[in-house]
Sequence to fold (372 residues):
Amino acid sequence: MTPLRVSIAAAVAAAVLLLVVFELIRSRRLRERYALLWLLTGVVLLVLALWRDGLNTIAGWFGVTEYPPAILFAIATLFILLVLLHYSTVISRLADQNTLLAQRLALLEAELREKRS
Amino acid sequence: MSEAVVPAPARAASPPVALRRVAIVPARNEADAVGGVIDEIRAFDPGYEIVVVDDASTDRTGAIAAARGAHVVRLPFNLGIGGAVQTGFKYALEHGFELAVRLDGDGQHDPAQLDRLLEPVLRGEADIAVGSRFAGTASYRPPLARRLGIRLFARVVSLLVRQRVTDTTSGFQALNRRAIVLFAADYPHDYPEVEATVMLFKHRLRLVEVPVTMRERAGGTSSITALRSVYYMVKVLLALFVAIFRRRAVPLDER
Fold:
């Protein structure tokens, strides 16, 4: 069975995460589309922290009987990996767009320079 | 410069082309070499518009090229060889050029050999002709590590495109409009020629290798160091593997 203090700590951590993400969106430092995965992470962790029987059941599915909170860590890790992977795709897209803009700028600049002279 | 004197056969051998043609010269910190390259292209055929893609050089590469009458497209920051060359292809596409040649700004590609390169393209037998240091009689021997890398790529690419390719890292090329359209739309990043060969195959463009000899660099330093080559090798192999499963950048029926 999950120790009560672990559940409380996990719930608090998840709640803090949700609050921080919410505040970042509110103050426009984080766009909604990039916040979604974080919010999902926070919600899933919060639910699993509070719903103690559920965590035990899920742990049972994976054969984790000694220490169910291990599943909490596993799921948190999985979500962090998802977020990182998502960011890698975002960075790649930005890099592509950056290249495109640099090329376009250079071509337009060359054209402008030749028109002027 | 002594190269300004053209050997008569070189010009006589190139067919009377009326095509609008452009020479794309990517250059990064090649102030010592780029002027000579421009002069030599002029000497080979004054009908070429020359566009120097200055990949954010910190020296006077762009200014020198402009002073010699080349069109200079200056990138605001370093994009690497792939991004720079693609800028040249975009220039060629947007200004309606039907024929493009590509020579590196460091002077290792000899414009006097362009007619050989142009031949298969002008005869309509190839969409792109690539100067190979290893095809035919060429006797180029790079350092061991590079040679192994080049060989490995040649093997892998040859398998993928079902055609023998010997020099997949050569940037000495002649291209027709079809190839310009493709590369303007999509071009790989570093060591782009390897992946580009696979792209050509997927788009059913015809590639022909032509034996050429390349010169020592006229100035500047090569962008390739030992550690980097390992990194690029792994990266390009990954890119090659993925390229097989990729959709076409330009639909086949658009030509």
